[in-house]
Amino acid sequence: MKRVVLFFAGVAAGIALVVAAAGWIGWPIRFPAATQETATTDTKTEARHEAPGHIELSEDQVREAGITFAQASGGMLKRHFLAPGSLIPDADHIGRVSVRVLATVTELRKRLGDVVEKGEIVAAIESREVADAKSEYLAARLTNDLQQTLYARQKTLVETRIVSENEFLRTRLTANDAQIKLDGARQKLFALGLSESEIADLPNQPPESLRTQFLRAPISGRVSERRVDLGGLIGREGQESELYVIVNLDDIWVDLAVSPEDIGAVREGVSVKIRAIGTEDEANAGVIFVSPLLDRETRNARVIATMPNKDHRWKPGTFVTAEVPLSGAPSTVIVSKKALQTIKGTPTVFVRDADGFEARSVRTGREDDDDIEIVAGLTAGETIAVQNTFTLKAEFEKDEAEHDHD
Questions:
Q1: What share of the chain is helix, strand, coil (3-state, %, to 5)?
Q2: What confidence tens digit (pLDDT) does each residue in 255-279 have?
Q3: Is the torsion defined by CA of 378, 383, 389, 393 positive or negative?
Q4: How many CB atoms lie within 10 A of CB 87?
Q5: Number of H helices, E strands in the chain
Q6: Using CA atoms, how far apart are residues 308 and 283, in angstroms rounded to an integer?
Q7: For residue 342, how many other CB atoms are within 10 A of its CB?
Q8: Which of 273, 310, 344, 372 is the most buried (most CB within 10 A)?
Q9: CA neighbor of 107 nearest in space, from 132, 133, 126
Q10: Cβ(374)–Cβ(362) under 8 Å?
Q11: Kind of pairing, strands 103-108 and 233-234?
Q12: Where does residue 38 rank: exposed (0-12), middle (13-18), buried (19+ CB within 10 A)?
């Protein structure tokens, strides 16, 4: 009994101590109002940051990420198709040094690759036909000089009635005939390739030089082929008649093969971009010819473009690819392809706003190498991120993952 009394006395003392302690610290315990407000604000901020489709980045964060902006605007896409081809010499800048008579090569003054000027002597030949033609001209020249002198005298005499009019008419006829023969002999020399100065100098040349003829370059350029050897016989049927081929590469042609599906889009005068296969060289060329016929074997149409080549950087025989532009209607909104990211299988752009960026799904249309048309989801004038948009995509997917986790 005494033990029971002591137990209850201990319990009563413990309760009294608890009540006294509660009165000392204050009961019930109250948290400061500031702490509650801070927690509420943090919750709201977190909720706003994690709002679907929105990414908050400060100006410093944008600058550190290297994100650049641009306004969405309209314009024309630079659409094109590719056409294979090769470089060939300009047909208007190819000259051939050839002969028109049976002859022997006595001198070759140029080697392969040598630079020549128009009218420069490049070779010499000896020919019996050339000697006969020169002799005929010299004889006709002497005869004509004599007949013209007689005609002038007869003209004076007929005025004084010393000679009859019939005799004067015969003299005039003979003089005209001599002039015609001289003109014929002169034209024959022109046909053989002699120049005006060479013909005029023939009376001053020694007789042994009559069989010699000098051949001159028809254009300025470089010797690309030498087809004969010294002492070779040329001009006879079945034998070579060309001594040199001279090419001027200041301009060069691009020979393109265009498919029947694309040939309708090619127009003469349009500019195309030429790229050499295997190198980074590129240049612009202008289309000068579009063939109306298709090749029987390849079923492609031939297109010729010309481009300047003053430094002779482009070599004939080089395989090239041409970007031929396609015409089309203008687009209302065009953005750089760098601005697009694919999120959940949908093309997305990041539109700049006051707090950061809005990830906005868009619908795309036509495109070229650099830009793409936006059909829906974006209007002209809105500012979007262009460079380093993968950073925004990573941040967006991170926030999406946190939402799904919560």
A1: 35, 35, 30
A2: 999 998 888 888 888 889 999 987 7
A3: negative
A4: 21
A5: 8, 24
A6: 9
A7: 9
A8: 372
A9: 126
A10: yes
A11: antiparallel
A12: exposed
Q: Which residues contact 236 (CB under 8 A, 6 or more apart)?
A: 102
What residues form DSSP beta bridges with 253? 88, 306
Residue pair 128/211 in contact by the 8 Å Cβ criterion:
yes
Tokens of 153: 């005298």
**What's the rounded Cα separation, in Å, for the pair 307 and 7?**
115
Amino acid 325 reads P
Q: Which two tokens stand for residue 240?
A: 């070579």
**3 state DSSP class of 321:** strand
- Smallest CA-to-CA distance from 369 within 81, 84, 83 is with 81
Assessment of whether the complete model's pTM goes beyond 0.70:
no
CA–CA distance, 214 with 107 (Å, rounded to integer): 9
219, 258, 263, 268 from 293: Cα distances, Å? 32, 11, 10, 15
Structure-token pair, residue 366: 């036509």
Per-residue model confidence as pLDDT tens digits over 31-77? 344 333 433 344 333 433 445 567 777 677 777 777 777 777 777 66
Q: Report the alpha-carbon distance of residue 120 to residue 126 in Å, rounded.
A: 18
Q: State the number of CA atoms in the 13 A half-sphere of 95 facing the CB.
A: 22
Strand partners, 285: 272
